[in-house]
Specification:
The protein is globular and about 45 Å long. The chain has a five-stranded parallel sheet with strand order 2-3-1-4-5, sandwiched between helices. The protein has one domain (about 5-215): Rossmann fold (3-Layer(aba) Sandwich), CATH 3.40.50.300. It has helices spanning about 15-30, 45-55, 65-90, 100-110, 115-125, 140-155, 170-185, 200-215; strands spanning about 5-10, 35-40, 90-95, 130-135, 190-195. The protein starts with a strand and ends with a helix. It is α/β, with parallel strands linked by helices and about 220 residues long.
Length: about 220
């Protein structure tokens, strides 16, 4: 059976990536494709526990290296339990965040640099990379405002994933610039969508990119 196709969505919280992943999954399934969706951190029993710790606003004083190590622990479990089996079955795998997020948030935001992140990726993930990464990178302030409004709504319903949103703007500026650096370094893999167009226009652009890549 031919190997499946691995697509990741990247960007700041509030960039619309999770919404666009759901829309793409629906379009691909409607077209007759078998699609597996997941997210990082999370998606497995272990990953959901790691997510609950890493994103909760009451989790304090986490060493940046510990944070990065936990992200990769989640990723290793996701590859073993979800991503690799689905690809082996020929599925299209859509993943909300992957190693680019760790390079941007821990490498850039936490100032750990890219070298250590990429070395851990090789060691922990077997150097598995997506076939295509869709990087949604609209206006920084607009993304942060949307993310904080969403998390306030979720917190009112009893969910708390606000730890990263509490960071200062300078943190997100470093994350934003690291994403741009990754895109410049990986132009064949990473497609950047940097405008603030309506969701339906972004959806159509993404579908066009995916269809072209899969056709090759």
């Amino acid at each position: 059976m031919p190997r499946g196709f691995f697509i990741t969505f990247e960007g700041l919280d509030g960039s619309g990536k999770s919404t666009q992943l759901r829309l793409l999954a629906h379009s691909l399934r409607t077209a007759g494709h078998t699609v597996t969706t997941t997210r990082q951190p999370g998606g497995t029993e272990l990953g959901d526990q790691i997510r609950a710790v890493l994103l909760h606003s009451k989790t304090q004083n986490v060493a940046p290296l510990a944070e990065m190590a936990l992200m990769f622990a989640d990723r290793a479990q996701s590859i073993l339990q979800i991503i690799a089996p689905a690809l082996a079955e020929g599925h299209i795998v859509l993943c909300d965040r992957f190693t680019d997020s760790t390079e941007a948030y821990q490498g850039g935001g936490r100032k750990l640099g890219s070298e250590g992140v990429l070395a851990l990726h090789r060691a922990v993930c077997g150097d598995l990379w997506p076939d295509l990464t869709l990087l949604l990178l609209p206006n920084l302030d607009a993304s942060l405002a949307r993310a904080r409004r969403r998390n306030m709504r979720q917190q009112a319903l009893g969910a708390d994933e606000n730890r990263f949103e509490a960071e200062e703007r300078a943190f997100y500026e470093r994350v934003f610039e690291k994403y741009r650096e990754i895109a410049a370094r990986e132009p064949l893999r990473v497609v950047t969508i940097a405008d603030d167009a309506p969701a339906e226009k972004i959806e159509q652009r993404i579908l066009t990119v995916v269809e072209e890549r899969m056709a090759k």
